[in-house]
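[audit] Reproducing an earlier prediction to check determinism. Same input, same settings, fresh worker. If the tokens differ from the archived copy the diff job will pick it up downstream; this log only records the rerun itself.
[audit] input (143 residues):
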Amino acid sequence: MEAAHGRGRTTRCEGLGTDTWGVGGRGAGGGRHGGGVAQGGLSDAEFVTWKARSARWPERGLSYLATRFSAKEAFSKAVGLGMRMPMTWRLCEIGNLPSGKPVIVLHGGLKDWFEAQGLCAHVSVTDESDYAASFCIVEKISP
């Protein structure tokens, strides 16, 4: 299925991914506070946000980790790579626009690969007390 994408371009759905992560325990927490998981899997910007949230409210820090990792997993599935190069946790950042809308920000080789494929991604993230869930749609943009 193709959709209009402004200025005469069209898009075609290339992939859909979804994932859930537990908040705390053996999920995103990786222990009581999530430090090891955070250091190994968050981008520098995500790590700063996680530290600030965790300092104010530890449960909110764990929730932040769960949403980030569920979104990264959903993205990795939508692009069809899983956790294979060039996909790595740290090269896939989940940011937010000023409006609060979550966005995928790619870095390094993953960004180069993604742009070379002519792809764009959309992500949705939600969390409850015990779980976080994310959905990601990847589209191919045609000129």
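[audit] rerun output stored. Observation attached for the diff report: The longest helix spans residues 58-78.
[audit] end
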